[in-house]
């Protein structure tokens, strides 16, 4: 899509560093330079203000990634694109409606039961491709210890973004992305698969809440 739009050598493309490296790789394959902008702390998608601050005379496009099933603020991001005459591309996940409904049902259950972790904001059509909580405390040691303890109790969980793209050797940049860094240190994806039974969900809640008291409260 970038090549078809004429993006190439000498151009810059604004992308998120929180997430899959394939987006930055696609930019380089088109001959352009990926420029990383920070994310919004609630949606985990590109923040429009951060994108606007990253724009230079060489910027040709913005690639927006809808993260974990929660859409980005496209109205604001498209507005940025229009003001600066930039191409705005989108990438996201999709799932069958019945599966989304079941995920939302499980997410609603977790929202009402979990303590000691910060649950995701369910607004703006969240489809819960991943149910991502924040483990409060002092960053990775707390989140990683929390994850290990859950796994020891038989609860599947995963760190959704282990290393932001701007920290990878191939794309290392000296850039300030505080929300990206914080999200990489604190986020943990809990299971909300359609196959999970009520007993499974109860086990997730019991395991999380047993650990939540050991951490700082979520505000």
Care to describe what's here?
The chain is an alpha/beta fold. The longest helix is centred in the middle third of the chain and has 17 residues, at 97-113. It has helices at residues 21-29, 48-54, 74-84, 97-113, 140-152, 178-186, 198-212; strands spanning 12-16, 33-37, 59-65, 87-91, 131-134, 187-190. It has 7 helices and 6 strands. Residues 213-219 have low confidence and may be disordered.
Short summary:
The chain contains 7 helices and 6 strands.
Question: Beta fraction of the residues?
Answer: 5-15%
H/E element string? EHEHEHEHEHHEH
- Quaternary: single chain
Q: Estimate the helix proportion, in percent.
A: 25-40%
Characterize the biggest β-sheet.
Answer: 4 strands, parallel
Q: What structural class do helix, strand and pairing data support?
A: alpha/beta
The Cα radius of gyration reads 18 Å
List the helices and strands and how they pair.
Elements: E1 12-16, H1 21-29, E2 33-37, H2 48-54, E3 59-65, H3 74-84, E4 87-91, H4 97-113, E5 131-134, H5 140-152, H6 178-186, E6 187-190, H7 198-212
Parallel strand pairs: 1-2, 1-3, 3-4
Antiparallel strand pairs: 5-6
Summary keywords:
two-stranded antiparallel ribbon, single chain, 4-stranded parallel β-sheet, alpha/beta, disordered C terminus, 7 helices, 219 residues, 14% strand
